[in-house]
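In this section we walk through a basic example: taking a raw amino acid sequence and producing a predicted 3D structure, encoded as discrete structure tokens. The instruction is simple. Fold the sequence below.
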Amino acid sequence: MQAAALWKWSNALHANVPADKTVLRINMDETCIRLHDGCQRGNLVAEAGDIKKSPKSLTENVSSRDGKACCTHVSVICDDQELQPLLPQVLLLNNSLVSARCFRAIKAAVPSFVLVVRRARAWMNAEVMVWWCKVLAEALRHVQSQRQIILYLDCFRGHWTRKALLAMARHHFWVCLIPAQMTWALQPCDTHVFARYKACLRTECLAARVQRTDGSLDWADLVRAVTACITAVLHHEPWLPAFEQIGLVGRQTLVSARVLGKLGLRVCSDVGDQLPCFADFQSMLPAGAKVPISEFFACFTRSGPHSDA
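The resulting token sequence is shown next.
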């Protein structure tokens, strides 16, 4: 079972944390953010209902290009509420959609915990992953002597290329992958964060629209809305319960009934703290993927943290 394999991997990492360190659990995941989110189902006031019945339209006049325009939020949560505001929240913007001038204005306006990056493609890949590991290490450098960082990542291939895994080892991060096709039940960002975050974002974007006579939303407005949601949701909420309820804290005694129900389990049996067997690792990765065991555990080898990625 994939959940049992995940729990074994997580438990084994916790069991090997040095006695002079405590664990800092981090979950990183990407979410797509559209410039035009489209309409949501809901109630119409009487005037809007009359307009909808008339030849006029309530549909927003958006070009096909703008309707598909989006960016990526590389979102990060941890189980320490004091450290949460220090984690870098990265926004990947597409350079064909966001002009250099607009990008400079956005970059100058965002707070220090939001990093905006303008690229040819506004999504995560191995190159961005290596850079993100460096940024995270810099943000947490002051606590790494006391904390052992465990990164929980989904099985998107860009997260665990050889270069990405060696970058994690170089920065002394331990990695644990959420099984493929199981993030909806076993990844904290998916189970506890994104629904609240997206609801907040819709509210912030609507508030920005009503400030404009034409009801439009530009990239600067969107980034301001995202920043407000990061502060209101990611920084405000304590995320330790998310890791506990999924069983990612070195034991599974606190796994919630909701998570067990998703997994089709009535109770959570003890899985121990021995590393999963090779077949378990294969079951967690996408079908046909090769298991880079040596790179997954490069952080435990003498050469791993110093390997050139």
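Looking at the output, two observations stand out. The two ends are 33 Å apart (CA to CA). The first strand starts at residue 22 and ends at 34. In the next section we compare this with other chains.
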